[in-house]
Amino acid sequence: MSDSLQALLAIMARLRAADGCPWDREQTFASIAPYTIEEAYEVVDAIERDDMAHLKDELGDLLFQVVFHAHLAQEAGHFDFDAVAAAIADKLVRRHPHVFAMNSDGALRVDQQSAVWEDIKAEERAAATQGSASALAGVPLALPALMRAFKLSRRAARVGFDFESPAETADKVAEELAEVREAAASCSPAAGSARFTPSPALFEEVGDLLFAAANLARKLEIDPEAALRAANLKFERRFHGMERLAAERGRSFETLDLAAQESLWQEVKRAE
C-alpha cells in the first residue's frame, strides 16, 4: 500500500477517534451517502469540462468517500478498506476472462466484451440468490431515474422482452406521447385560475413517455443520461446567448414577448 493511501486511512481513523472531529464522528452510512453521490457527479463534471486539475481534486474527494464508508464498516466489524480493494480486484479478474484466463482464445470486440461482462454479472446474481433472482434484480433504486430506466430496459431485453427494431421502439415513444396529449387535454385549469393542474393519469403518462424515450436511447446504443446532460448544456449555452443578444440591443430578455424571444433563439442557433 502506498504511503499516500496509508496516510489517508490514518487521517480517516483520526477523524473518527474519540477526540477527533465532532462532525465526522456523528456520520453514518446513510448520512454521507448523499455526499458520495454528489462527489461522483462532480467527477463527471470535471471530465466533461476537460479540467484535469479539478478532476484530480474530485477523484480525491470521491476516494475519501470510499475510505469513509470502509472505515464505518470496519468499526462495525463488517470489512475494511483492504477487503474492498481485494473484492473489486477479484471481481475485475473474474469478469475479464478474455484478459486474465490462461486459456484465453484471444481478444474480443467491445460488444463481445460487454456481453461477457453482463453474462458473468447475471451468473453472479443467480449464484447469490440460488438462481431465484429476477432479471431486474440489483438495479439500484438510488440511481437517477433516467439511468435506472435505461438499465431496467436493458435487463429486460437480455431475456427477450424487447422491440425488434429501433423503429418499433420509436413508435412506442409516439404512442406514449399521444397518451400524454390525451391525458393533458382532460386536465382543465382550476376554478378561477389559469393555472394548469396535472392529474394523476397525466403524471403516469409522462413517466411512461420518459421510460419509452430511455428505452429508445438504449435501442439506438446511446446513453440517455449523457445525451440529456449534453442537451442541458446546449440549452444553457443558447439561453445565455439570447440573454446576451438582448442586452447588447438594450433590451431586457424577460420583457420580450415569446415571438421576440423565439427570434433570438433562432438567431443564436444559426450562429452555432
Strand count, sense and closure of the main sheet? Answer: none
The radius of gyration is 25 Å
Proper CATH architecture of the largest domain? Orthogonal Bundle
What is the fold named in CATH at topology level of the largest domain? Answer: Helix Hairpins
Overall number of structural domains: 3
Global geometry = globular
CATH homologous superfamily annotation of the largest domain: MazG-like
| Helix vs. strand class | mainly alpha
**What are the secondary-structure elements, in order, as H or E?**
HHHHHHHHHHHH
Overall helicity = over 70%
Q: Write down the CATH class of the largest domain.
A: Mainly Alpha
Strands, total number: 0
Overall description:
This protein has 272 residues and is an all-alpha fold. It folds into three domains: 3-94, Orthogonal Bundle (Helix Hairpins), CATH 1.10.287; 134-222, MazG-like (Helix Hairpins); 227-271, no CATH class. Helices cover 71% and strands 0% of the residues. It contains twelve helices and no strands. It has helices at residues 3-16, 22-25, 29-48, 52-75, 81-94, 97-100, 110-128, 145-158, 166-185, 200-219, 224-248, 258-271. Helix 8 crosses helix 10 (200-219). The longest helix is centred in the last third of the chain and has 25 residues, at 224-248. 8% of the residues are buried. The model has no long low-confidence stretch (mean pLDDT 88).
